[in-house]
Structure formats: structure tokens, C-alpha cells
Amino acid sequence: MRRHGSAVTTAEKAQPASSRIGLGLRERNKIDKLRRIKDAARELFLSKGFDDTTTREIALRAGVGIGTLFIYADNKRDLLFLVANEELAETTSKAEASAGDDISCLQNLLSVFRHHYEFFGRQPQLSRLMLREMMFYEEGRQADQFRATRERIIRLVVSIMDQAKAAGMIRSSEDSGFIGWVAFCIYQVELRRWLATKPLDVDEGIASLRRALELFMRGLTPIESCFVVRRQHPKPVRSNR
Predict the structure, then answer these.
(1) pLDDT at position 2, please?
(2) Averaged pLDDT, 66-83
(3) Before 199, cis peptide (omega within 30)?
(4) Predicted confidence (pLDDT) per residue in 166-187, tens digit
(5) pTM score, two decimals?
(6) DSSP character for 177?
(7) With left for phi above 0 and alpha for psi between -120 and 50, is residue 223 left, alpha or beta?
(8) Rounded Cα gap, residues 31 and 35, in angstroms
(9) Which residues lie below 8 Å from residue 116, measured CB to CB, with a gap of 6+?
(10) Which candidate, 128, 124, 183, places its Cα nearest to that of 153?
């Protein structure tokens, strides 16, 4: 189903040139324009930086009109995610296929997250921009696809936790959805920390993530007094008069 006037489906975008022979000239032109826009946005974001790049520069580099550019993205932030959305969705599909019923909960999590570490590690400069801009990314025609992919990852992590509970690998009265959400949050923080290191080493990043996930899954074996939270009374505000 096509939306927002976008004339190219995900399947069409993924097709190599040799498989587009049967497409009409108009469809081939649309696919080519989209490719040029994505290439131009990637090149300029990497060479000039996201903040200093303008949508007009991207349109000029791609050889399209500014109106054509906005068929595919609502704004500059949307263009950033246009560059990565399709590949991120494909990476998530590979992650889903890697999860198994016959391996441990921790191995499933690490296998799933490794696919995404490898994806973000292939283009670290662009990935850092994406992670910075995704914080409050709610509007834009590319936002829906990005959020859908993110929700797929979260659901996958939750399903791994559900499977582990059903197999008796983990025992908790907490809802699997919340357990999975916490594991996903650990992954997000560790990924950001790893992307800030140089040079990037996927094995080192996964080792650090494993340490954090093991701590989460094993717990801290606290005593009861660890959970005491005293109510804080707000201090009265003094008037300057």
C-alpha cells in the first residue's frame, strides 16, 4: 500500500536494476530519483554534517527539484531516516530469523542485538546522527516506518523473554512486556556508549552488552532494606520580599 504520494514500494526499492526491466519508464525514473536522493543525503550528511546540510543542497546534488525531494520526506530529519530505514528493516528481519527455540535466552538476545550492532557499526558517523535525532522523532512520513521497525525489535525481545519464562529459564512475576522493555533499554544505552568509542569493535561492544544483560538477568541479590524509599518533603520556597 502506497502512502503520502510516495510512488515506490519497499519491494521496488530493493530490486536490483536487472529485475526492473519489466517496469515502465515512469516507475524506473521514480526508483532512480529515490536512489539519487538517498545517495546525495548520505554523502552530504557525512561530508558537511547534518546541521550544516540543507534540503536544497541535497536536491541539487541529487539532480531533482525541491518539490520532488519532499515527495519522499517531510524535512531534513526525515531524509536522514530515509537513508537508513529500509536497511534497518532488513536488519531487523535477519535478527528475527536468528532467534531460536533451542538456545538460551541470553544467546537469543545477543544474536538479535549483534545484527543491529553490525548495522550501526558499518556507518558509525551516520548512526550517531540517527541516534541523536531519533530521540523525539514523532512526525514525518519516514517516522512511521522507523517506529514500526523499532516496535518490531521490542516485540522480538519481549517474545524471547516470554519463551524463556515458558521454558523455565527465568522466573519472575513481572510482566514479560516490561522485562523485555528493560532489556531493550539496556541495549539502547550500551549501543550509544559503544558508538562513542574508537575504533569500533563489534565483539567488544557485544561483550559489554553481555555483561550488562547478565547483571540484569542475575540480579543484585538485595536485602529488603535496599528497597526502602522515604518520602521527600519539598522545602518551602522563600520569598525575596
Answers:
(1) 32
(2) 91
(3) yes
(4) 999 999 999 999 999 999 999 9
(5) 0.80
(6) H
(7) beta
(8) 6
(9) 91, 92, 95, 153, 187, 191
(10) 183
